[in-house]
Amino acid sequence: PAPESNAVHGGRRRHVLLFPLPYQGHINPMFRLAGLLHARGFAITVFHTHFNAPDPARHPKYRFVPVPDGTSGPAPVAIEDVVAHILALTAGCEAAFRERLAAVLEEYSSDTVACLVADAHLLPMVEAAKSLGVPTLALRTGSAACCACFIAYPMLFDKGYLPVKESQRDMPVSELPPYRVRDLVVLGDDERGAVRELIARAVTAVKVSSGVILNTFDALERRELQGLRRDLAVPVFDVGPLHKFSPAGDSSLLRQDRSCLEWLDARPPASVLYVSFGSIACMSPRDLEEAAWGIAASGVPFVWVVRPGMVRGSARQELLPEGFEAATRGRGMVVAWAPQEEVLGHAAVGGFWTHNGWNSTTESVCEGVPMLCRPCFGDQMGNARYVEHVWNVGFEVGGELERGSVEAAIRRLMIDKDGAEMRARAVELKKAAEECSRTGGSSCLAIDKLITHMMSLKN
Ligand code: UDP
């Protein structure tokens, strides 16, 4: 379709308003969606919290509207803190958002605003927009399976799967195959019901909106998408993998160290293990040490993202055990933050040791890179379950980390026949992802439908 004509209505350009949840794994897909919509002719206005605010200079074509959120202090590190933080953030910026939205609507004149696309965790913003007559679409940045798990949350409690009982961790959840109890979205002990509240709000945000946008694609989650379409009354747009549709835009909160790409250039194909646990997951000092010595003993070249704050209470320089650098000199590179999509797309990378955040999982899938899974919290266990038992493109390193088992797992993924077979399947999955993204492919059609839908929404 002709790009500029998509979003012009009665000679006037249509605006899309966006509000991401201010965490890296939520910011990235929202900005990719912004890039896609902008390329199709929409003017983009991004509302954002002060916490983890984007840098407007990196997106000169968008308008940014800061919304005071009433929070202060450093980024939360423990998942229990994240849940409380999200609830505090949303409560903190609700009134200010309503005010700023009203001002923006007046300025744009409301008939040119197509809709607000809000992260599904921002129910108060969805409600504020609706009350001001702005249609909303909810962006879910996790998998379709995770969305189904959210919807099923009350049932999981009713049927006794939740709260998790130690003796039932391996029990299959027959209503949500292939999940076992241990794979469900469980975030800490949830004493005060904060997690249930957060999940219930996300489901409500989806149900009261005019549709849900998912960063997934048909070849990856056909059955799960069918299930959602059956269970939800609103349209479901499976427009992923978003990072393959949008011009590369830099929405990274930390500076990406690009020197690892040059380092990779000198390495043979599929020889390097990329290790990263995303933007929030933390390791204990003990796990870090066992991981380090396992990586060292494997003899496999590596690029390892050791993020500041990854081990609670330590500054980066002190994180790795003494002697690790000498033991791996010339064979590995440690960076504070990597240009992950490019690293995964580099021919030298042959495996990814990941925490299975949904972005990391799909980025790996799209580059045909098999995974070593070390899920920590939230939807990551479920994502790892799919990697190992549905797509067969990796396996989990579970339990307490121990250098010997880490070494064995790395060698299995990078050197053994088993790993080669997973790599071959990952390449097939990559091809399937490319099919979906091609003209006429499922994701392309979903994007066209989404844009037509946006243009049809009535204030
Ligand atoms: N990422 C990055 N550099 C890194 C590690 C991660 O740019 O060194 C990006 C990665 O490409 C992904 C996002 O950060 O898009 C992390 O999202 P994910 O859902 O995988 O995990 P989260 O950080 O939300 O736990």
Automatic annotation (TrEMBL):
Keywords: Transferase. The keyword Acyltransferase does not apply. This is Uncharacterized protein. Belongs to the UDP-glycosyltransferase family. One of its GO terms (molecular function) is UDP-glucosyltransferase activity. Gene3D superfamilies: Glycogen Phosphorylase B (3.40.50.2000). It comes from Urochloa decumbens.
